[in-house]
Design brief:
alpha/beta; about 425 residues; single chain; Rossmann fold; three-stranded antiparallel beta sheet; globular; seven-stranded mixed beta sheet
Length: about 425
């Protein structure tokens, strides 16, 4: 009321020009006040989101050259173009589940630091909660990691898988694993202790039992001598394990029928044997037979590390031999049980991949193969016609020839930044 009277007196006393000027000044002041109030309201709301609703960092991306979307939830490693979509996400069950799981993982991580004189290789006091608690993101993990390269100049893994939108530009001479050496892949020589603390913390989240489902894995890795913990082999083995679980241990083998319960796994040409060990650790009722010409030092070290940290390896046995050892062991079994057996061939060299598949098919066994060094003459009728500059394309084509020949039920791929030999073929057995 008082303001209204004051404005009326001002209006009566001012000339028309002064009146216009005065109203303009008042309009500017009112606009400024409204802007400040709106800004205050926005900032306060953002604070509420961060402290009360989120319980996790939220960031607004300001980099026009970044592929990250406008609003980003660091806990879930997902982005949104609209703030409204972010708010809906923050109120959703998925976000709340990630936060709850992250809190539990953080508690376990803090516990590592309380182990006295021998804390885990994963623990570092400089690590923040969000480094550990955020959902696993391979994209974020790969940022800044040393890439596989033949040159002495350091290179780093670029964003995105080969052949996917957003991946680094490539030609036939820079494609994935060109000539078997370089490309957009993690350096296979990179070891766990080479990683900065925040990366080791992220890997802790990835390997944690709540994420991987593998009991004792973190303790086993911590107990290993550093020279045996190669990041590429670790990621690759866990990803293949996930494929075994998804393709063969969770799926029905025939429409409308109960899934076949695997009772034995033959890990042929096992090498370091970690995939078979992960199966043995997670499924004590499954017998795992690791087969190779000689046990590697890394195989023995990993088996001993599992045992030393309390994870039983009673269901894991190493057998010296080749494919013929499978036939011998099957003949020794009482009551057969072939259809409950998986032949696993991870990076079997040259003819080992297709020979292991044929043996499994002949005996009605399930099989899963991650091909490695495929020779065109073993899979193409006219191999001389294969003239490809990109090893990535050549490998995919030969895996396609394998799929056309053996009719797998599932075909999947491990991210090409982990391995250039990442196509997985699997069948639950029982013929074509």
């Amino acid at each position: 009321m008082g303001i209204d009277c004051g404005l009326r007196r001002m209006y009566n006393s001012l000339s028309p020009c002064r009146l216009v000027l005065s109203l303009a000044v008042q309009l500017i002041v009112v606009t400024f006040v409204i802007s400040e109030v709106a800004s205050l309201s926005y900032n306060s709301f953002g604070s509420v989101l961060k402290d009360d609703l989120l319980s996790a960092p939220v960031s607004q991306n300001q980099d026009p050259n970044s592929s990250k979307k406008g609003y980003w939830c660091d806990y879930c490693s997902v982005g949104f173009n609209k703030r409204k979509s972010l708010i809906e996400h923050l109120n959703g069950k998925r976000h709340k589940a990630v936060v709850a799981d992250g809190d539990a993982v953080w508690e376990d991580y803090v516990e590592l630091g309380n182990r006295g004189a021998s804390p885990s290789v994963f623990f570092d006091e400089s690590v923040t909660k969000i480094d550990v608690a955020r959902a696993w993101s391979l994209d974020k993990f790969m940022e800044g990691l040393r890439a596989r390269s033949r040159s002495s100049k350091a290179k780093f893994v670029a964003s995105g898988m080969v052949g996917t939108p957003g991946a680094s530009p490539s030609s036939s001479h820079t494609g994935n694993n060109f000539q078997g050496g370089a490309g957009n892949q993690i350096d296979p020589r990179l070891r766990l202790h080479d990683l900065p603390p925040s990366k080791r913390a992220a890997l802790f989240r990835y390997l944690h039992a709540s994420s991987s489902g593998i009991p004792g894995l973190i303790d086993m890795v911590s107990a290993l001598p550093p020279k045996y913990v190669r990041v590429k082999e670790l990621l690759e083995s866990v990803e293949v394990y996930f494929q075994v679980v998804d393709a063969l241990l969770k799926r029905s083998t025939e429409q409308g029928q109960k899934p076949k319960r695997l009772t034995r796994v033959y890990d042929i040409g096992c090498g370091h044997g970690l995939v078979g060990m992960l199966i043995a650790a997670s499924y004590p009722s499954i017998e795992v037979r690791s087969i190779d010409l000689v046990p590697r030092e890394s195989f023995l070290a990993q088996r001993d590390a599992f045992a030393s940290t309390g994870t039983s390896m009673d269901n894991l046995v190493f057998r010296t031999g080749d494919l013929s050892a499978i036939a011998e062991m099957e003949d020794e079994r009482v009551g057969g049980g072939e259809k409950h057996t998986l032949v696993l061939c991870v990076h079997g060299c040259k003819e080992l991949t297709h020979e292991s598949i044929e043996l499994a098919r002949d005996r009605g066994m399930a099989w899963l193969a991650l091909p490695c060094c495929l020779r065109a003459g073993d899979h193409l009728e006219h191999p001389g016609c294969l003239r490809l500059g990109s090893d990535h394309t050549r490998y995919a084509l030969l895996c396609g020839a394998l799929a056309g020949r053996y009719h797998p039920e599932t075909v999947a791929a491990i991210d090409s930044r982990i391995t250039g030999r990442g196509i997985v073929l699997a069948s639950s057995g029982g013929g074509d």
